[in-house]
Amino acid sequence: MGRWFNYFIIKILKNLFAALFALLLPVLASAQFSISGKVTNQAGDGLPGATISLTGSSLSAITNSDGIYQLKGLQPETYVLKASYVGYSTITKTVTIRNDKTVNFLLQAATFTTEEVSVNATRASKNSPTAYTNLSKKDLEKNNFGQDLPYLLDQTPSVVVSSDGGTGIGYTGIRIRGSDATRVNVTINGIPYNDSESQGSYFVDLPDIASTINNIQVQRGVGTSTNGAGAFGGSINIQTTTRRDTAYADISNSAGSYGTVKNTINLGTGLLGDHFSIDGRLSRIRSDGYIDRASSHLKSFFVSGAYYGKNSTLRANIFSGYERTYQAWNGIPDYIISDKSIPNHRRYNELGILPDGSYYPDQVDDYLQSHYQLLYDQKLSDKLAFSGALHYTKGKGYYEEFKADADVEDYGLTPVVIGGTAITNTDLARRRWLDNDFYGITYALKYTPDKTLNFTLGGAYNEYKGAHFGNIIYTKESAGIGPNYEYYRDDAKKNDFNTFVRGEYRSDNVLVYADMQYRHVYYSFLGYDRNLNNVQQNSSLNFFNPKVGITYELNERNNIYASFAVGNHEPNRDDYTNSTPQSRPKAENLKDFEAGYRTSGSVFRGGINLFYMLYKNQLILTGQLNDVGSQIRQNVKDSYRAGIEFDGALKISRSLLWAANATLSTNKIKNYRQFLINYDDNSVVEQDFDKTNIAYSPSFIASSTVSYSPIKGGEIAFISKYVGKQYLDNTSNTNPTEYPVVGNSSFIVNRQLDAYFVNNIRMRYDFSIKGIKKIGLGLLINNIFSQEYEANGASYPDIEGGQVVNYNYYFPQATRNFLASVTLSF
Hints:
Layout: H1 2-24, E1 33-40, E2 51-54, E3 60-62, E4 68-74, E5 78-84, E6 91-96, E7 101-102, E8 105-106, H2 117-120, E9 131-136, H3 137-143, H4 149-152, E10 159-163, E11 172-176, E12 184-188, E13 191-192, E14 213-220, E15 234-240, E16 248-256, E17 260-268, E18 276-287, E19 296-308, E20 312-326, E21 332-333, H5 334-337, E22 364-379, E23 384-407, E24 416-418, E25 421-423, E26 425-450, E27 453-475, E28 485-506, E29 510-528, E30 534-555, E31 558-569, H6 573-577, E32 588-600, E33 604-625, E34 631-651, E35 656-678, E36 683-693, E37 700-708, E38 714-723, E39 726-727, E40 737-741, E41 744-749, E42 752-753, E43 756-769, E44 772-782, E45 790-800, E46 803-812, E47 817-825
Parallel strand pairs: 1-7, 1-8, 12-15
Antiparallel strand pairs: 1-4, 2-3, 2-5, 5-6, 9-14, 10-11, 12-13, 14-15, 16-17, 16-47, 17-18, 18-19, 19-20, 20-22, 21-46, 22-23, 23-26, 24-25, 26-27, 27-28, 28-29, 29-30, 30-31, 31-32, 32-33, 33-34, 34-35, 35-36, 35-37, 37-38, 38-43, 39-42, 40-41, 43-44, 44-47, 45-46
Keywords: Cell outer membrane, Ion transport, Iron, Iron transport, Membrane, Receptor, Signal, TonB box, Transmembrane, Transmembrane beta strand, Transport
InterPro entries: Beta-barrel_TonB, Beta-barrel_TonB_sf, CarboxyPept-like_regulatory, Plug_dom, Plug_dom_sf, TonB-dep_rcpt-like
Domain TonB-dependent receptor plug: 126-234
């Protein structure tokens, strides 16, 4: 039944798509052919981002992550093809075509040095014994309608994404193998992006970064990343714009549901005088959000200039992002979501409610973040190459919020007496600021004595300075303060040093890999001492992170691999500031075992990966209060994740492709203790579990993309995502609560996120006319069956009246919605 249903759906979509574009473009060229092939280096590795161009024509193509290219719409005649890639000699081939033809290129290292050295220091290579997925610029462009970067990675294995506003614009989150953003290492051109203190990655501060990305590698597990915080669930390694030989200009505009608008301009000079290039981007994104008042106003720019010498490359990047988003990060209470008598109950946002029932207009997060990168690559000899980078990131902003009937003593104030009445409480508005600087240096020295052996010596030193302070900007009644009264300040500093050495040995069919990293972290912060005085103190940590692995090539298309890696991860800011040295949690330790099989053929490519991630002292919320009265994360001694990942792509026919992945896993904590506050007598009640599930860790995740190209330049894709049930805490939902609700008899609240299955349709059509290199039309229909679901949430259980009470908050995602785009390329 399902097979015939899918057949008819594809058949109907095919006819609709062909009819639509037949109306738009009644004249289609006839007798047109294509040239395709692969660009490789001397080792046989595909070269992503290589340029294939036709001499005397504006037509060109960029190779994907596997080094594959395709030139379409060619008339039967003779062409001169030119293949170029930074760090390799440019070669040409003369080709006469009478039908579709395959032309491969083997490039020899020469002339220019590559911009890839610093990036490769944090990446897995083609046959590395690591689980990874590569995404090219073309892969990202297909889905880039304005949503944040996590949503463009949603179809990669073991990934779950969510959005506070429900649309994928504004504050978004990503988990890899159940690990949140604080445990996912993110680098941009080899430079750490994770916040030094919270260790999260806030992609809202990089609006439309996808329009500047050349390629991404998403690793799962500890992986190969060596810069920044340790990877405990995965890594996202981003490479921004690289060399393009010809000048270009792209204008892209998107619009859609919930007032969403995206405007982007990309410009580039191409290679000037055989040595220089300049690239730039300007973007603006606005959205009202699916959740009430979850609006986003985002702006960004990117400028890059490069010099290419005979043996060196120097690139300077400056990019900046500004975001102003109305706060929706508290989610929606379960009793509101379940009460259909409340208008708009699934979208109700209670943040910023004023006493008169209106809303505070400036309940916003307002932040500007600017990045400066200077990247240098030098070919010292045929066997030795160096790369280094200087970087500086400046961030400054605040979140503003209204607080009704606030106790003035909580803000360090003595109540004033007015007219004989002491003003102990008042309505006020406050801003909580973060003013931070992050700067440092990274380097990598790669030595390749012969084709069978290479070594990399690298490392980084980074410093972070963060000023945390709060201002009261308004009070309803005079509380005896002046304008912008500062009620707290906390200055923090963090130094992060690491050095590593990596080696790879290749024989005829075996690759052996080893990596050893030493990392030192120093953190100074304002926190409680043993006498509960808030004083400046510090902590120093030393980590050793070894990695080893082996890959065996069965033949040119098939290999098996196995690896073992150790990762260590320091506590975050809240763990330090809300504890004393006696109650402070320990660093986390992870031992990651991976093994798998990969195959790559003309009809099918894919792989199977087995993983076992053994944690020691993993940090989680248990509900227990520490010696300063804060509910912070505590170490659990033993926990693990074990599972199997599958990903593959099947070329069913010349025009039909099916790509899919799935993860089946078990995620457990041994001998877990949950603590609940009993508000009846202010005691703490302990619950013990022999083995329980780790929160936010679905046991089954699956993705599917069926892509059909009925006409040249056109594509219809049916995209599906299934995420299994998740728990909001680590008790495996053993204490449901029954609540009475107006308009309903009652509903049961469990500490869980229900499984969901969401389907999207993406349609794209690219064509050209005289004077315009490419016109791209796109349509993305999200959640076509309009399923109501929640992708994230939180639970705060306690005991009241002798019963366990769950206070759950969820983040509902948008029902059926659309985004449409038009792109003009010159």
